[in-house]
Design a protein that fits this description.
This protein is of the alpha/beta class. It is built from five helices and seven strands; from the N terminus they run βββαβαβαβαβα. The strands form two sheets. The protein has a five-stranded parallel beta sheet with strand order 4-3-5-6-7, sandwiched between helices. A two-stranded antiparallel sheet has the order 1-2. The protein starts with a strand and ends with a helix.
Length: 151
Amino acid sequence: MQYIINQEIIYILSYNEENTMKIAICDDNEAELNRIRDLLEIYACDKGQKFFIKCFTSSVELASTAEFEKYDIYFLDIIMPVMDGINLAREIRAFDRFSPVIFLTSSPEFAVESYTVKAFNYLLKPLKKLYMIRWMISLIHFIKNAMIHIL
């Protein structure tokens, strides 16, 4: 979907016909990547939400594909080789100013800097299942509420 407001095209959730939300997860640690994906899939199953989840173990790979394949939500680790999560978020913000970027990291030291790229949230790993589900309920509610107010 796209809406024009003040001559800007604002993309509001690239839902397809089945209302599937596209989510990108980027973490160089495959165990963490799989854990985050599993928690999102548990949430989707519990809440009847449809997610298309694409996992990236390389920040460079996500940066090179995200401009051409829009995601509704980005979950990014911060400490990664070659390009850290903050710089990856800067790359994403160059072409997508509105999709929520959520940092999932084991280090609290980049929290303040994360908001320079308009991070939606900064969560410390390891995430507990109950916390992730509660947090996703808030995120989905925020996204749907934002759509209602813009429409």
